[in-house]
Design a protein that fits this description.
Structural class: mainly alpha
Order of helices and strands: HHHHHHHHHHHHHHHHH
CATH class of the largest domain: Mainly Alpha
Distance between the termini: 12 Å
Number of domains: 2
Strand content: under 5%
CATH architecture of the largest domain: Orthogonal Bundle
Shape: globular
Number of helices: 17
CATH superfamily of the largest domain: MetI-like
Largest sheet: none
CATH topology of the largest domain: MetI-like fold
Number of strands: 0
Length: about 325
């Protein structure tokens, strides 16, 4: 198992290095540091000296890859690539371009707010989706199955904005069951602010998830081992929740574990509309302010989380089905 995990980790590094080079090219060649300075300073009457001062203040005045004015190892370390890109591998995100605040400190401060919303939404939604999908698969070919499919397709076709705005109007404005938006600085006392975004997040994702899990269970309940279990006299509940669910774990794990980046990064729409100070809202604010340092850090962090999720998927496969590791 250790050798298997080590191989997956070694595969991940060149992927992240390629992503890092791509991010560097997009942020420092397609959009040059001088363009960043003009965008952030935002004054049409800027002179060249003001631009150079801003570049020097944020270390954007350095050469891109090689600094011939420095001695070894400064010729490599005193470059934009090393200080702005390679430092990301050490999770040193530097400071923001607009207000000069530590990005790493902001991330640590905002991650708990995102998790408080996404974790309950993910766990409750997963349990509901699996349970409903099993029931729909059990009544396959009946009006319950057909009605559920129609409802799922309709729910998938509706924009997430509709759920957010509709939820705010019905739950907050009409029924007055929760605040329209906002968040309490004390996370333990902020449940009333979390309730509505969690409910809306669960409902907005149910259509696609139930349809996906229904397909998985339909494939499983038509296999020979299910017929054998039924022939032995096992109850339908035991067949579905014990045998079918266990053997459907590989595709379920694929869908579940790749959601890990979403749990940490948060939902941009939910956090923005409900005023939640999480990572999703932080990213939206950075895009609005055109803070390229924050945007670059969030893109890299998202890629690291996605690669980590894919490694966890591979590892979880070997736990559920050891034949994969042996193969």
């Amino acid at each position: 198992m250790f050798a298997y995990i080590l191989r997956r980790l070694l595969y991940a590094f060149p992927i992240l290095l390629g992503i890092n080079l791509l991010i560097f090219g997009l942020f420092f060649f397609v959009n040059t540091p001088e363009n960043m300075a003009r965008t952030i300073l935002g004054d049409k009457r800027l002179n060249q000296q003001q631009i150079e001062n801003w570049l020097r203040e944020h270390n954007y005045h350095l050469p891109a890859f090689y600094n011939s004015a420095e001695q070894v190892p400064g010729n490599l370390t005193q470059t934009i690539f090393w200080q702005k890109s390679m430092q990301l591998f050490l999770f040193d995100f530097g400071k923001s371009d607009t207000d000069n605040v530590s990005i790493g400190r902001e991330l640590l401060h905002r991650i708990p707010y995102s998790i408080c919303i996404t974790m309950p939404m993910f766990l409750i939604g997963l349990l509901l989706d699996l349970f409903i999908a099993m029931i729909v698969a059990f009544y396959r070919g009946t009006y319950i199955d057909y009605s559920a499919l129609v409802i799922c397709v309709v729910m998938m076709s509706i924009s997430a904005l509709f759920y957010i705005i509709g939820g705010q109007y019905i739950i907050a404005i009409r029924l007055k069951l929760a605040p329209v938006s906002g968040f309490d600085s004390q996370i333990l006392y902020s449940w009333k602010f979390m309730l509505m975004p969690i409910i809306i997040g669960i409902i907005s994702g149910m259509g696609a998830s139930i349809r996906y899990y229904r397909t998985i269970f339909l494939e499983e309940i038509n296999k020979d081992y299910i017929r054998t279990a039924r022939a032995k006299g096992l109850s339908e509940g035991s067949v579905l929740f014990k045998h079918a669910l266990r053997n459907a774990m590989i595709p379920i794990l694929t869908n579940v574990i790749v959601s890990i980046p979403f749990l940490i990064m948060g939902s941009m729409l939910l956090e923005n509309f409900f005023g939640i100070p999480g990572l999703g809202g932080y990213t939206i604010d950075a895009i609005a302010k055109q803070d390229f340092a924050v945007i670059r850090s969030m893109v890299f962090l998202g890629s690291v989380l996605n690669v980590a999720a894919l490694i966890l998927v591979d590892v979880s496969y070997t736990i559920v089905d050891p034949r994969i590791r042996l193969g």
